[in-house]
């Protein structure tokens, strides 16, 4: 479906949000971001944006000269999942499909294409490729072949508007099947492909040089060790240049430098907390360019022509930016814009090839973000769109970074969010919010709707990046392997006790909450520290570690069993001991369990068994089961209902009027004098 109209007037009016009220309605935190992404065309004449209109994610293409837009609605009510400018006139997009008993749309792996004027719109690749409408438009292109695989754009070839390179990952036909990905050159009109590289290992990612030639393949092999393969040119053999050692030394290619004689890599750095190195292609040697003192890189800033890096982003607390080239025009512009938006994070989206038009993204812990267009010739910054225009940052709470040491000396970092207007209030009721993952994932200084929903109702929120989390180097991540329910749990406890010592939290009014691994940590926290938490909420959580090794989608994958052995360990007795389902007699906290009936990662049986174990012990359980949700709720009404019931449960346990609510926020009465 195609629709035309004025862009900045029509689209914003169509998507306008409701003015925020006091307190912020929970439904506002549950809403999906109105605008997903904005990218400018290589020639700087058009914008493309993904937005929710009528309940679906559509693709709008905007002519900056006439300020008119054409909107593409995928067929059958599908959502646009991702998109890429592949030339000045053509966009390739992937879709996600609604259907069945699942609320959340699932990416189909297909690739579609359209011109900016809506013409030559067709499917290029996927399992429904034979349904191409090319023949109905007078084309003599032969019928496309269906392929049962997922594909995505690897690189738009800068000097070739007719072709791009794509990664093709065939679908497994049986659980645990090992299938290697390919890189293909695709005709952007006909969809015909030609294989130019095959991965030397399963699950590899690819890096190209500036001519679009595949030069690196990197990933974790079946032995769970990360390997980097390199080839000198098309048709050359892959050679292993780096393999993870027992000490955890690992590198990961990012991109080639402008000259093409060096490659930027993520590496351990001088402090083994994460760094950036450059690999000399001729000498085959690494040189450290930047080392994180506390954390590793969290992102990078490319030059506008995408030929080099000029800055490294990290997250020691709030966002930090280290400039590799202070004299680069991009670096000077970034510094200037950061000064215009103090207290916020500024980064570049993409730019026209000549660097004269740039998409700028500005966001923060209280702001989901806004898109701007910078005109280098006019030296002007123009506001385009807010991701969630109904969110009013001035009414939301600040995330305050903190750093502590765990009981064994391990350095830990995290965030404490106090309710807006109560930044100096002591002994607040507090929710310990444990992130999922757990490995490689980490809490960051960014807008989090769940954190803001809790804070908006008067609760302090504590988040800690326990050992095993990402962002602080591989050694820190590996320190969590085998420590589910052990030292990882101790880190959460130590952060909670730190908040009590700082008088940020009332020791009698603390709940613990998390999703996925965080759900496990919430219930394991209630087991390990029965007198610390008044309530525990497990959201899509794992409660039986042994069962995790046989049920769910992880053990069904090629490397899944080995991964679980690595991160959980192989001692069944210890896993049973560290499983909350086997330790319910120790739980004093009130418990709430939130379960999605379509969860493949953590099947509902995990929550059902935990509920049964608690009920057999005569313990009450607040039970929230949504048949059509998966690993994390998606439907806005279901998320709103979850927030409502979650907060009601927390209120009963540690909120105003709860049995633990005395006069915690009041100053203590002075002692009587003799």
Question: Which key terms come to mind for this protein?
Answer:
single chain; eight-stranded mixed beta sheet; 674 residues; alpha+beta; 35% strand
Q: What's the quick description here?
A:
The chain is α+β, with helices and mostly antiparallel strands and 674 residues long. 17% of the residues lie in helices and 35% in strands.
Quaternary structure state of the chains depicted: single chain
Helical stretch tally:
12
Count of individual beta strands = 37
Poorly predicted ranges (pLDDT <50, ≥5 residues)?
3-7, 9-21, 135-141, 663-674
| 3D shape | globular
- Alpha carbon gyration radius: 26 Å
* Average pLDDT score: 91
Q: Distance between termini?
A: 84 Å
Structural class: alpha+beta
Helical proportion, percent range: 10-25%
Taking strands numbered 1, 2, ... along the chain, how are they ordered across the largest sheet?
30-31-33-32-34-35-36-37
Strand content: 35-45%
List the helices and strands and how they pair.
Layout: E1 2-6, H1 7-14, H2 26-30, E2 35-40, E3 46-53, E4 56-63, E5 68-72, E6 79-85, E7 90-99, E8 102-107, E9 111-115, E10 122-125, E11 149-156, E12 163-170, E13 182-187, E14 193-198, E15 205-208, E16 214-220, E17 226-230, E18 239-243, E19 252-256, E20 262-267, E21 275-280, E22 285-291, E23 297-302, E24 309-314, E25 320-323, H3 329-340, E26 345-351, E27 357-363, E28 370-375, E29 380-386, E30 399-405, E31 411-417, E32 428-434, H4 449-456, E33 460-465, H5 474-478, H6 487-501, E34 505-515, H7 517-528, E35 535-539, H8 545-548, H9 560-568, H10 572-577, E36 590-596, H11 605-616, E37 621-626, H12 636-654
Parallel strand pairs: 32-33, 32-34, 34-35, 35-36, 36-37
Antiparallel strand pairs: 1-5, 2-3, 3-4, 4-5, 6-7, 7-8, 7-9, 9-10, 11-12, 12-13, 13-14, 15-16, 16-17, 17-18, 19-20, 20-21, 21-22, 23-24, 24-25, 26-27, 27-28, 28-29, 30-31, 31-33
């Amino acid at each position: 479906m195609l629709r035309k109209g004025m862009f900045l007037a029509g689209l914003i009016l169509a998507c306008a949000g409701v003015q925020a009220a006091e307190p912020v309605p929970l439904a506002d935190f549950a809403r999906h971001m109105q605008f997903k992404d904005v990218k400018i065309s290589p020639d700087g004449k058009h914008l493309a944006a993904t937005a929710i209109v009528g309940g679906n994610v559509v693709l709008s293409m905007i002519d900056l000269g006439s300020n008119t837009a054409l909107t593409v609605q995928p067929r059958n009510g599908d959502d646009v999942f991702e998109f890429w400018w592949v030339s000045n006139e053509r966009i390739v997009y992937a879709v996600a499909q609604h259907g069945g008993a699942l609320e959340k749309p699932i990416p189909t792996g297909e690739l579609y294409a359209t011109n900016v004027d809506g013409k030559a719109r067709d499917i290029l690749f996927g399992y429904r490729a034979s349904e191409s409408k090319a023949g109905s438009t007078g084309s003599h292109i032969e019928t496309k072949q269906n392929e049962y695989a997922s594909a995505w754009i690897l690189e738009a070839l800068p000097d070739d508007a007719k072709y791009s390179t794509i990664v093709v990952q065939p679908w497994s036909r049986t659980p645990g099947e090992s299938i290697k990905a390919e890189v293909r050159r695709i005709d952007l009109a006909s969809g015909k492909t030609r294989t130019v590289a095959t991965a030397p290992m399963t699950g590899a990612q690819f890096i190209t040089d500036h001519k679009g030639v595949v030069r690196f393949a990197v990933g974790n092999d079946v032995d769970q060790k990360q390997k980097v393969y390199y080839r000198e040119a098309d048709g050359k053999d892959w050679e292993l240049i780096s393999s993870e050692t027992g000490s955890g030394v690992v590198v990961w290619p990012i991109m080639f430098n402008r000259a093409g004689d060096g490659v930027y890599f993520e590496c351990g750095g001088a402090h083994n907390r994460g760094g950036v190195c450059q690999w000399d292609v001729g000498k085959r040697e690494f040189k450290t360019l930047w080392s994180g003192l506390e954390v590793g890189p969290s992102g990078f800033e490319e030059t506008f022509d995408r030929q080099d890096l000029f800055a490294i982003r990290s997250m020691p607390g709030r966002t930090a930016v280290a400039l590799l080239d202070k004299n680069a025009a991009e670096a000077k512009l970034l510094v200037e814009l950061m000064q215009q938006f103090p207290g916020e994070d500024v980064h570049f989206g993409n730019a026209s090839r000549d660097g004269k038009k740039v998409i700028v993204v500005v966001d923060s812990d209280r702001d989901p973000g806004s898109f701007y267009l910078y005109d280098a010739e006019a030296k002007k910054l123009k506001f385009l769109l807010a991701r969630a225009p109904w969110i009013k940052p001035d009414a939301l709470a600040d995330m305050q970074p903190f750093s502590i040491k765990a009981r064994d000396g391990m350095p830990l970092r995290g965030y404490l969010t106090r309710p807006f207007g109560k930044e100096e209030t002591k002994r607040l009721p507090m929710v310990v919010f444990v992130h999922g993952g757990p490995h490689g994932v980490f809490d960051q200084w960014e807008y989090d709707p769940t954190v803001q929903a809790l804070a908006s109702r008067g609760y302090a929120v504590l988040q800690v990046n326990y050992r095993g989390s990402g962002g602080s180097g591989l050694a820190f991540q590996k320190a969590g392997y085998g420590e589910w329910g052990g030292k990882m749990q101790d880190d959460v406890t130590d952060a909670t006790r730190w908040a009590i010592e700082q008088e940020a939290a009332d020791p009698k009014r603390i709940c613990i909450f998390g999703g996925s691994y965080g759900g496990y940590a919430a219930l394991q926290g209630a087991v390990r520290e029965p007198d610390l938490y008044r309530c525990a909420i497990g959201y899509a959580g794992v409660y039986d570690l042994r069962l995790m090794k046989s049920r769910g989608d992880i053990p069904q994958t090629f490397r899944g069993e080995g991964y679980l052995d690595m991160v959980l360990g192989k001692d069944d007795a210890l896993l049973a001991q560290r499983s909350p389902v086997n330790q319910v007699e120790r739980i004093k906290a009130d418990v709430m369990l939130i379960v999605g009936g379509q969860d493949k990662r953590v099947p509902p049986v995990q929550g059902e068994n935990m509920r049964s174990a608690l009920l057999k012990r005569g313990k009450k359980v607040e039970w929230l089961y949504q048949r059509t949700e998966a690993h994390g709720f998606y439907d806005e009404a279901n998320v709103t209902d979850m927030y409502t019931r979650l907060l009601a449960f927390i209120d009963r346990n540690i909120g105003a009027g709860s049995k633990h609510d005395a006069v915690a926020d009041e100053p203590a009465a002075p002692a009587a004098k003799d």
